[in-house]
Amino acid sequence: MSYVIGLDLGTTSAKSVVFHKNGEVAAEYEVAYPLSYPVVGHAEQDPLQMEQAALEALSLSTRSIDREDIVGVGISAAMHSLICMDEKGAPLSPSMIWADARSADEASTLKENHPDVYRRTGTPLHPMSPLSKLLWMKNNHYEPLQKADYFVSVKEFLLYRWFGEKVVDYSIAAATGLFNIHEHEWDEETLALAGIRREQLFQPVEPTYVMKGMSAESAEKSGLDSGTPFVIGGSDGPLANLGIGAIQPGETAITIGTSGAIRQFSSEPLLDDQQEVFSYSFTNDLWITGGPSNNGGLVLKWIQQLFSNEDKIPVEELTKLASEVEAGAGNLIFLPYLNGERAPFWNAEAKGSFIGLTPSHGKGHMMRAAMEGVLFSILHIGSALERLGNKHNKIYASGGFARSEMWVQMLADIFNKRIDIPVSHQSSAWGAAWVALYSLGHVDSLASIKSSIPMKEQYEPNAENHEKYKALFEVYESVSGKLQTDFAKLHRL
């Protein structure tokens, strides 16, 4: 029997998922790593802790599997991380992740003075992007910037240390804001803005690029044979679409974990004059278009902390309270912008807020409004995609939220569409594993994954609930737009 591994480097953990070739999960293991907020607006992680977690996850997920039965490993990773690294592979800085907002001023200046950057790179001008982060480093004389030989993402950092290779997949490169998505090369004009040289970035390659010869030390820690092929894969977004089967026009993937996103594949870059969505390269002839929300499952964790005293109230208990409240949470609306917001506003200064609170609202209403608010933010981005001509004919859902029947039913009611859920919620890992199978000649095409995705439930929309949500979303959309300038005033205070 043979297996393939999907290694998913997420925001809060490294997950190693061992799959049979038909998509069934044989084993999986997850190792968490901390997220640090040393200063308000900063969001950092230790690259060496992340490397250790990835190696440990690989080792523990394969402890009952014969090494010789593993045909390869595909890799998925969260976007927008930035590490200053030296020639020897030592990190000179923490990893600044997508949630790091310290470069808000630089992003605002870029948006005002260089809107053409978006047309070339497909990356909205926002502090999430390594481009903005590099400008912040330059403007603040950040010492690691001056000492760095290379500027890399977490995935590049690990692969350089494990294989000595200086490569980056298209979708991770595209998410930097430094990559020309029309030519699939680093964009010289944008590099000049950032003040870095092409030699300080790694060579962009397609997601099928194969690496062999893992260092002896890393191979021993991973539990894998040093000759096991690793396929570079892509970022978690397009791989989640692939892993869930949302490949054709009209097929939409919605993923909600710590953060959230809605995406579709396209055969050309889909750029937006209003710059509400991203468009990133995946292969030479496939692009991924959509938008991310900063605020997914972490909103529920905030509610949990808000209502807990010495003993934490389980999220399941709060969800049960929410289930006892009617759809619409008693006309209570929550704007879920706890960490600012990316799409469709791209406003790092946005704030969370409850709209419509009355004395009749309790914990269940607030929990339900928070869950609905996260989904309204996804619908808001989905509306921008529809404006560009992307219909949501079929919706697939994945990520941690897909384990909550109540939350997925809300999604069906809000979009008024049937929602299809796979058996495994690890769609990014399965997408990465499938790219590995395709690259190594075990399957004929990327699109053929559709016959190898074990599916579970389908959720049909409730028409009565949809009408309630339709009316509430009009208010959500109106209020969220009007408050953007007030968010900026609050931020300056």
UniProtKB/TrEMBL annotation:
Residues 253-439 form the Carbohydrate kinase FGGY C-terminal domain. PROSITE patterns: FGGY_KINASES_1, FGGY_KINASES_2. Gene3D superfamilies: 3.30.420.40. Signal peptide: none annotated. Pfam families: FGGY_C (PF02782), FGGY_N (PF00370). GO terms for molecular function: kinase activity; phosphotransferase activity, alcohol group as acceptor. It comes from the Bacteria. One of its GO terms (biological process) is carbohydrate metabolic process. Coiled coil: none annotated. Keywords: Kinase, Transferase. This is Gluconokinase. It comes from Halobacillus aidingensis.
